[in-house]
């Protein structure tokens, strides 16, 4: 008996006709609804190019497939169409397999979710607070995302081979946390690479084999496996692609690490997984409750990430269990809705198709409800900007929870600019930029952004002019043990220039100066970065570098009598 089987009561004979009519009517309504869903899904995917990188989308209802479409090509060099058997990188969709594998061991009593991670990983620095296994699985540990830390090196993720030993070394190097464990959710791959290693420690079995035997084979995922040696030839595997202007370029996945990513799979296998994980373990099963249990933060709020490596949200009254993945220009998505028993599986080698937008569009098609309430303002609500309205609003504002995120506001001919983008004024210290609402406080000391989700608050930070004399003090060579790299900073017409290796430099522009802290921003390998100099008596006491999901990476100034700063950063004079 499955979860949808119910005992029928014996009906009086005179009601049989009414009953059959009702059943036929219900069946007819559901068929009409399914026809409408299929038609809308067909229209949604109609624009996916046949000669471009593509993917496969599968949608089912109560175990019955109602939509399947494979589109595009798996490889542009020798164009072959994507089929049901084409293999893709699952990227972060892998996390639910890693989490489920570890939860099986919790079920067997081999560990507790509330165990101290240092019990199993004594190499983790003692940060003065306990990091639990539960926090590793729910992105609430405070650990930095080691992949983003590599962007401060000459060869970040995607540019060089990275194995499990490298990932663990980067995790163990970090001198501090992003925040106190349990304080908030900040997505980090570190927890999941540790989780996969922990599976090996507890079982004595290679992680890939344990997952294959315990999850992939029972789920019928016979084409799937966790990534092998980077030179392994995977028959039928697609190549990931991204747009660079009008040209397609191939993404790269030079990884041998596993846990946060690593699953190679098909959309059909991911669909089998959704059927297995949501029906093999019944809703009332303690394992299901543990898997879908979301983390309760230190302040009592419940975040959306669950122990099982999935987001569990309620959207417009509908429960959604979902996770997407993005790596090396591959994208993947799994979503399950208990209401209607809908399962959605998607794999793609086209970076340009957003899984967030696709997931939202499919939700709206399945349930005829909006994912995000539209902003209560539009262009028709804009007003003529009065000069007094600009008072106190220009300058720099830093994200309260992410020091790598600094906004700059300027005045221009059209009024207020967020960097170079003109904002449209609304009543009550509000401004609009397309679908983003900016709400300034009355004094301009803070601004809150609302953009398709929870509001984010930024605090104003002073920006005084940095004198040429102070720039000379700041310039020089700096080394970080956290990422094992030495850099050189020199004066530049726009502020500073960071040198790290031949043909590897970043221009940094000033964004704040409070006297005690001086900040410069840039983009390192395409990732935003803030260089935050902590000053003491007109000298650099410490340099903190902030990246998304990896704040406060410490650098110390390096002094050498025999080498110039550029030589210390890896340069050789010619």
From TrEMBL:
Gene Ontology terms, MF aspect: hydrolase activity
* Places the protein is found: Membrane
Under Enzyme Commission nomenclature, its number is: 3.1.1.103
Enzyme class label: hydrolase
Query: What would be one Pfam family of this protein?
Result: Beta-lactamase
Q: Cite the Beta-lactamase-related domain residue spans from the record.
A: 43-352
Q: Sorted alphabetically, which InterPro entries does this protein's record hold?
A: AmpC-like, Beta-lactam-related, Beta-lactam/transpept-like
What does UniProt give as the signal peptide span?
Answer: 1-31
What does the UniProt keyword field contain?
Hydrolase, Membrane, Signal
Q: Does the keyword Signal apply?
A: yes
**Name of the protein in question:** Serine hydrolase domain-containing protein
Please report the organism this UniProt entry assigns to the protein.
Chitinophaga pollutisoli
């Amino acid at each position: 008996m499955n979860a949808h089987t119910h005992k029928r009561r014996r009906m009086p004979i005179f009601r049989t006709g009414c009953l059959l009519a009702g059943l036929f009517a219900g069946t007819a309504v559901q068929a009409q609804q399914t026809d409408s869903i299929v038609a809308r899904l067909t229209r949604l995917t109609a624009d996916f190019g046949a000669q471009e990188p593509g993917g496969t989308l599968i949608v089912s209802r109560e175990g019955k497939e109602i939509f399947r479409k494979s589109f595009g090509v798996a490889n542009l060099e020798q164009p072959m169409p994507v089929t049901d058997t084409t293999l893709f990188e699952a990227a972060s969709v892998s996390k639910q397999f890693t989490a489920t594998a570890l939860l099986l061991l919790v079920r067997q009593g081999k560990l507790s979710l509330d165990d101290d991670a240092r019990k199993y990983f004594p190499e983790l620095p003692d940060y003065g607070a306990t990091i639990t296994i539960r926090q590793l699985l729910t992105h609430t540990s405070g650990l930095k995302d080691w992949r983003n830390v590599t962007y401060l090196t000459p060869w970040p993720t995607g540019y060089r081979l990275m194995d499990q030993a490298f990932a663990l070394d980067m995790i163990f190097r970090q001198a501090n946390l992003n925040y106190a464990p349990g304080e908030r959710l900040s997505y980090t791959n570190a927890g999941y690479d540790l989780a996969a290693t922990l599976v090996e420690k507890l079982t004595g079995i290679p992680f890939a084999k344990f997952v294959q035997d315990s999850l992939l084979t029972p789920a019928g995922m016979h084409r799937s496996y966790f990534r092998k040696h980077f030179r392994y030839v995977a028959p039928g595997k697609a190549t990931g692609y991204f747009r660079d202007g009008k040209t397609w370029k191939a993404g790269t996945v030079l990884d041998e690490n596993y846990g946060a990513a690593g699953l190679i799979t098909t959309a059909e296998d991911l669909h089998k997984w959704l059927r297995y994980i949501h029906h093999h373990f019944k809703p009332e099963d303690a394992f299901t409750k543990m898997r879908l249990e979301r983390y309760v933060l230190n302040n009592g709020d419940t975040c959306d990430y669950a122990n099982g490596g999935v987001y569990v949200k309620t959207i417009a009254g509908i429960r959604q269990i979902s996770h997407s993945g993005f790596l090396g220009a591959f994208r993947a998505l799994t979503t399950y809705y208990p209401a209607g028993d809908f399962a959605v599986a998607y794999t793609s080698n086209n970076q340009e198709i957003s899984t967030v937008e696709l997931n939202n569009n499919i939700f709206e098609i399945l349930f005829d409800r909006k994912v995000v309430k539209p902003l209560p303002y539009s262009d028709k609500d804009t007003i003529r900007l009065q000069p007094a309205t600009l008072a106190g609003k220009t300058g720099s504002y830093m994200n309260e929870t992410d020091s790598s995120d600094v906004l700059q506001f300027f005045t221009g001919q059209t009024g207020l600019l967020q960097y170079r983008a003109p904002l449209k004024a609304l009543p009550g210290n509000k401004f609009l930029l397309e679908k983003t609402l900016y709400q300034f406080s009355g004094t301009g000391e803070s601004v809150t952004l609302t953009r398709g989700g929870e509001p984010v608050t930024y605090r104003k930070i002073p920006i005084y002019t940095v004198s040429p004399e102070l720039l000379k003090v700041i310039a020089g060579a700096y080394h970080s043990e956290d990422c094992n790299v030495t850099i050189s900073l020199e004066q530049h017409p726009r502020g500073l220039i960071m040198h790290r290796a031949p043909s590897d430099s970043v221009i940094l522009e000033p964004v704040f100066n409070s006297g005690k802290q001086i900040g410069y921003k840039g983009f390192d390998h395409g990732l935003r970065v803030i260089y935050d100099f902590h000053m003491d008596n007109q000298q650099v006491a410490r340099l903190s570098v902030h990246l998304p999901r990896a704040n406060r990476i410490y650098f110390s100034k390096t002094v050498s009598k025999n080498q110039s700063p550029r030589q210390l950063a890896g340069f050789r004079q010619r």
